[in-house]
Amino acid sequence: MRDWPAVTWVIDVDGVVWLAGTPIPGAPEAIRRLRDAGERVVFVSNNSGPTLAEYTSRLATAGVEACQADLVTSAQAAASMLSPGQRAAVVGAEGIREALAERGVTVVASDAVPGPDAVVVGRSTTLDYDELAAASTAIRDGARFVATNTDATYPTGDGPLPGAGAVVAFVATASGRHPEVAGKPYRAAAELVRSRFGSPRVMIGDRPDTDGAFAIAVGAPFALVLSGCTTAADLPVTPAPTLVAADLAGAVEQLLAGTG
């Protein structure tokens, strides 16, 4: 039996709650307002880099209390696509390795013998050419190619930086293979959210191509905020959002008032 309200708000993190860890003004207060109203707030992030403990610590530093059960990441979605006992190589950060370990998947090198069953690729800030070459070779030799997500950019206060999609594109080009994508808006992430939280009240995010499409995948309205990757100059966008707000605080204000 569920111990949370039937209404669940699914909120993206990067570009909605914070920019590179710096809280967006009003976001922590908006989340507290939702919880004070008896709503369940969960976070779904395509950033596969941080571990769950790092996520909750960073959220706490930003003024947002959260437990690990409140989080769904693209690393978890990628891990859910593999079976316990399989072997996977990783191009990416520690969050992927943690998710694979929790799934019972053994992390091995791309050039391990025998070769890995899969290569999981996510965002990394410490790329190595030899590592990318070995991963591409393993995929050409038959390993599954699983991408945590294909977001081209990662929002920061100083503008966008290369996202996981940039790394995935390198491996796809070098291997000649297209990836199976796990994170928003794809099936693995949608299934994780529905299985853990049921039908969301709304999906709030800053990217129509991921958050908007993900809202459709989980059967929820899409609230677009302009505090991250999407700006007013980009409007109109597809899919069309149910509402548009400057930031999370504005979206929550509209939705609680019933004007969205």
Structural domain count: 2
CATH architectural type of the largest domain: 3-Layer(aba) Sandwich
CATH class of the largest domain: Alpha Beta
Strand content: 15-25%
Work out the helicity level.
25-40%
CATH topology of the largest domain: Rossmann fold
Main β-sheet description: 6 strands, parallel
Structural class: alpha/beta
Query: Could you tell me how far the N terminus lies from the C terminus, measured between alpha carbons in angstroms?
Result: 31 Å
Unreliable residue runs:
1-6
In DSSP terms (H or I, runs of 4 or more residues), the helix count works out at: 9
H/E element order: EEEHEHEHEHEEHEEEHEHEHEEH
How would you portray this structure in words?
- This protein is α/β, with parallel strands linked by helices and 260 residues long.
- The chain folds into two domains: 8-74 and 184-257, 3-Layer(aba) Sandwich (Rossmann fold), CATH 3.40.50; 81-181, 3-Layer(aba) Sandwich (Rossmann fold), CATH 3.40.50.1000.
- The protein contains nine helices and 15 strands.
- It has helices at residues 27-36, 52-61, 74-80, 94-103, 129-140, 164-175, 187-197, 208-218, 248-257, and strands at residues 8-11, 18-19, 22-23, 40-45, 71-73, 87-91, 106-107, 118-121, 144-147, 153-154, 161-162, 180-181, 202-205, 222-225, 243-245.
- It has a six-stranded parallel beta sheet, sandwiched between helices. A five-stranded parallel beta sheet has the order 7-6-8-9-12, with helices on both faces. The protein has a two-stranded antiparallel sheet with strand order 2-3.
- Helix 2 links the parallel strand 4 (40-45) and strand 5 (71-73).
- Helix 1 runs parallel beside helix 9 (248-257), helix 3 packs parallel to helix 4 and helix 5 (129-140) crosses helix 6.
- The radius of gyration is 18 Å and the shape is globular.
- The two termini are 31 Å apart.
- Mean pLDDT is 94; it is low at 1-6.
